[in-house]
């Protein structure tokens, strides 16, 4: 395990604790420290991935060890980009722990050498898995936002201005951020599935084989396509959109692990 990777985990863990402290005590200096630590972890993590690309000659998405690490990096990246527009500070209390869990599990898993296919197929597979992971990261943030939405909605319905009500933003802001994640993640998911179908044709000589991984990938795409359609055409918002996002992400996670463990 490299020094950079250890620094990445240390920054993510410290950032997670900092964000929890901010949620508890609502002190801006605590938030700033947590945010700086998350940025530091993200930059260290970017260095780790860059070194892996240089040493191995491919983007580190070829096995579960690499994919989980890259997923943690992508989740933090998506969150930091969205923070520029939404400033949803409390979300870091969920994003940082998710990234931490991802890199810690990745550090435990073995990282066996990957024998890539010929150059074109290897690059195509990298695009396929890489875009899927970025899309999953965007949906992961949407999933976390959906959880916060349901918590805040419950607090409002119960008319209890308690712990969560005082710390969570408006339902409108949460819904808007969830929609932005969906818009960002769906094209990546679509591109990932298209490249996967083409890769299957190159390797196996057929576009579709009714493999369980392919079936669940198709189901996942249909769920998010239906959600995006309903939001655009029918105007779905709020609770229904949040629940559908959560359901879709659960299926997506199952498909993700099926992809590497199946």
Protein described:
The protein is mostly helical and 262 residues long. It folds into 2 domains: 1-115; 121-262. Helix content is 83%, strand content 0%. Helix 5 (119-157) runs antiparallel to helix 9 (238-261). The mean pLDDT is 85.
Strand-helix topology:
Layout: H1 3-25, H2 28-56, H3 64-86, H4 92-108, H5 119-157, H6 163-167, H7 171-204, H8 212-234, H9 238-261
Helix pairs in contact: 1-2, 1-4, 2-3, 3-4, 3-5, 5-7, 5-9, 7-8, 7-9, 8-9
Search tags:
single chain, 262 residues, mainly alpha, 9 helices
Number of helices: 9
**What best-fitting shape do the alpha-carbon axes yield?**
flat
Question: What's the number of extended β-strand segments?
Answer: 0
The fraction of residues in strands falls at under 5%
Which H/E pattern describes the elements? Answer: HHHHHHHHH
Segments where pLDDT lies below 50 for 5+ residues? none
Biggest sheet record: none
Number of domains: 2
Gyration radius over CA: 19 Å
What class, by secondary structure content? Answer: mainly alpha
Portion of residues within helices: over 70%
């Amino acid at each position: 395990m490299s020094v950079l990777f250890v620094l990445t985990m240390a920054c993510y863990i410290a950032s997670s604790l900092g964000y929890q402290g901010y949620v508890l005590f609502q002190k801006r200096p605590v938030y700033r420290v947590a945010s700086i630590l998350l940025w530091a972890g993200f930059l260290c993590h970017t260095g780790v991935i860059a070194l892996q690309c240089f040493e191995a000659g491919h983007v580190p998405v070829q096995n579960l060890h690499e994919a989980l690490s890259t997923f943690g990096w992508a989740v933090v990246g998506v969150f930091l980009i969205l923070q520029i527009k939404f400033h949803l500070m409390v979300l870091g209390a969920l994003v940082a722990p998710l990234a931490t869990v991802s890199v810690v599990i990745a550090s435990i898993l073995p990282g066996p050498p990957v024998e890539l296919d010929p150059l074109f197929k290897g690059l195509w597979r990298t695009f396929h898995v890489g875009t899927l992971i970025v899309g999953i990261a965007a949906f992961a943030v949407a999933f976390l936002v959906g959880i916060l939405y349901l918590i805040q909605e419950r607090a409002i319905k119960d008319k209890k201005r308690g712990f969560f009500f005082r710390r969570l933003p408006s339902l409108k802001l949460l819904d808007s951020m969830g929609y932005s994640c969906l818009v960002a993640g769906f094209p990546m998911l679509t591109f990932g599935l298209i490249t996967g179908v083409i890769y299957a044709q190159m390797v196996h000589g057929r576009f579709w084989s009714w493999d369980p991984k392919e079936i669940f990938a198709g189901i996942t795409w249909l769920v998010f396509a239906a959600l995006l359609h309903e939001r655009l055409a029918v105007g779905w918002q709020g609770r229904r959109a949040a629940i559908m996002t959560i359901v879709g992400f659960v299926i997506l996670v199952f498909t993700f692990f099926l992809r590497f463990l199946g």
